[in-house]
Design brief:
The protein is mainly α. It folds into two domains: 104 residues, no CATH class; 221 residues, MetI-like fold. It is built from 21 helices and two strands. The chain has a two-stranded antiparallel sheet. Helix 4 packs antiparallel against helix 5 and helix 11 runs antiparallel to helix 12. It is extended and about 100 Å long.
Length: 426
């Protein structure tokens, strides 16, 4: 046996290279070729998907910019004994006096936006103070007490709440944006506390987002199951025709479909008009179905319905009809055979469609924004609002990271309950 192995190792190729080494070299070359073929796609995924996600996660805890604007102030601020002194010591006032007077105007302007996130009023306070400090420096005014001078410029410098708000900005990495996304903040002792009543808006929106996503998923399953069953059991020429109608929404702009729902759902729209014509409603009793949560549910269900039908259809199409006939031959009634034989086999399609619809619904923006109005807005509204209006990118990133975390938890649960290998998406 050892002689045979030794002989095999001594087999040479036409180039005089041992066959074993030649095979390894060829296998390595094939792996490199395969990698080069998929490398452009891999690079595209990294640049357009992986990098933005890590950038988002970084922004959600990044607070380093403001530390570069007020480094000396923060250094002195950390020495302040809040229990012993009512206001920060003279060194803190002196540091912020000169950093406002000699600092870069653009950098200070960007820092003001961040400071206003912690407490509204910082922007007007800093701007007014900065103008006066520059006048003092230009006139070479001798300052006996920087604390008294700043309080003289604006009495808000004697307000402890402004100085306590600065506590949130001391560290370059902070979870404050995540707490803000959950209607929480820090107090003077850096304890996590609830926001004031008028600022608690995000928890309600998160709950509404989950509720709408669950309802949309349920309604899509309720409407999509019989359609998929019909498509799977009709003759091919009829099922192909019906499949065109299922896919037809994909050939129409989402914006056009959403706008059409606004026209149909309004009080003087098509649906109310038909109900009045049938005598179901009186002319004065027209239903308000747009610019509220009801409109959001209706429009999102119709738009996401194909994403439920297609996975269900792909599973139902391969279920042999003989299973139901066998159950009937064994004495099962049609309903019993359907529930105990047919329905369990559709679970991969139902779970895949449910997961797909829920994931799409929880992050939807255009349809709730246009059809839902103020009452039907989901968490995507606040992400867009802070991204474009307040420029609070840290809060946007934190909300996006929370959504990402929710999706990963759902994926983990799906894998535990159903198994990701059983997913059927068509």
């Amino acid at each position: 046996m050892e002689a045979n192995i030794s002989t095999a190792e001594q087999i040479l190729t036409t180039d005089g290279i041992p066959l074993k080494d030649s095979l390894k070299k060829t296998e390595r070359r094939n792996k490199i070729k395969a990698f080069l073929l998929v490398f452009p796609l891999l690079l595209f995924i990294i640049v357009t998907f992986i990098v933005p996600i890590f950038d988002m996660l970084g922004r959600s805890i990044d607070d380093s910019q403001i530390n570069t604007v007020y480094p000396k102030t923060f250094e002195e601020y950390k020495k302040w004994d809040k229990d012993a002194e009512e206001l920060p010591p003279e060194e803190v006032y002196k540091a912020i006096y000169y950093e406002l007077g000699e600092g870069d105007k653009i950098q200070i302007g960007r820092a003001l936006t961040r400071m206003n996130y912690s407490k509204s009023g910082w922007k007007s306070l800093i701007k007014k103070t900065q103008r006066q400090i520059k006048k003092d420096l230009k006139a070479e005014v001798v300052i006996a007490s920087y604390k008294e001078r700043l309080i003289e410029i604006n009495e808000k410098w004697a307000d402890r709440t402004y100085w306590y708000a600065m506590t949130q900005m001391l560290n370059e990495r902070t979870p404050i944006y995540y707490w803000n996304a959950l209607d929480r903040t820090y107090d003077a002792e850096m304890n996590v506390v609830m926001q004031s009543e008028e600022r608690r808006i995000y928890i309600k929106t998160w709950i509404k987002t989950f509720k709408v996503s669950v309802y949309v998923t349920f309604f899509c399953l309720l409407l999509g199951f019989p359609v998929a069953h019909l498509l799977a059991n009709l003759p091919l020429r009829y099922s192909n025709l019906l499949m065109i109608f299922v896919l037809l929404p994909f050939w129409t702009s989402l914006l056009v479909r959403t706008t059409a729902w606004i026209v149909m759902l309004q009080q003087n729209g098509v649906i109310n008009g038909v109900l009045v014509w049938l005598g179901v409603l009186s002319d004065d009793g027209r239903i308000q179905m747009v610019y509220n949560e009801t409109g959001t549910l209706i429009a999102m269900t119709q738009i996401l319905l194909p994403f439920m039908i297609l996975p269900l259809y792909s599973v139902m199409k391969v279920i042999p009809p003989s299973h139901l006939r066998a159950a009937a031959n064994l004495g099962a009634k049609p309903f019993t055979a359907f529930v105990r034989v047919y329905l369990p086999q559709t679970v991969p399609g139902m779970s895949a469609g449910g997961l797909l619809v829920f994931v799409l619904a929880i992050g939807y923006f255009i349809t709730p924004e246009l059809v839902g109005g103020k009452d039907g807005q989901l968490i995507g509204h606040w992400i867009a609002y802070h991204l474009k209006t307040t420029l609070n990118w840290g809060l946007c990133a934190a909300m996006g990271a929370i959504l990402l975390g929710i999706m990963l938890i759902l994926y983990w649960l799906y894998n535990k309950i159903v198994g990701i290998e059983n997913i059927k998406l068509g």
